[in-house]
Amino acid sequence: MADNLIELNESGAYLGSYKPSQKTLSEVISAINYLLSREKSAMLTLYRDALLGKLGTRRYDVAYLHAEVCIKNYHGYLFVFNASRVCELSRLCQAAKEGWSPALKRVIRHRKIRKLKDKRSLDRVAEYLLKKKFDLSRVTKDLYR
């Protein structure tokens, strides 16, 4: 995963990281709590706990997640990518766009899982990616035009 994130960043598909400001945090937490009251979600639970500053290892039994998880600072961020650029770089996505046909089966059957030269630390890669901030207000302004 760390290698894939580096590759996406180098290709220009990575747009930046976003964390709600202190001003909007309570509103975001309220929305998350509402969603969690309607449907269980392991990822949303982890995100909420990271936003609340509940870092460290704790046990989770939510939806499909039944394990101890170490919540880290970067779990409280959204990593934003250009979806069309990511799809351009993904053979699986390209095959799916062709129509979920034999092309997709062929890609899955013949994909090569490459050996890693040196195992990159996901923690180090995530901390590196956090340095590039994503301006959400730019996107919301475009929505209201």
Explain what this protein looks like in three dimensions.
The protein contains eight helices and four strands. It is of the alpha+beta class. It folds into two domains: 1-15 and 82-133, no CATH class; 20-76, no CATH class. The strands form two sheets. The chain has a two-stranded antiparallel ribbon with strand order 1-4. Strands 2-3 form a two-stranded antiparallel sheet. The longest helix has 17 residues, at 22-38.
Determine the strand fraction and express it as a percent band.
Answer: 15-25%
Mean pLDDT across residues: 86
Number of domains: 2
Global shape: globular
Largest sheet: 2 strands, antiparallel
Helix and strand sequence: HEHHEEEHHHHH
Structural class: alpha+beta
Radius of gyration: 18 Å
- Please give the alpha-carbon distance between the first and last residues: 37 Å
Total strand count, please? 4
* Uncertain spans: none
Number of helices: 8
Strand order of the largest sheet: 1-4
| Helix percentage | 40-55%
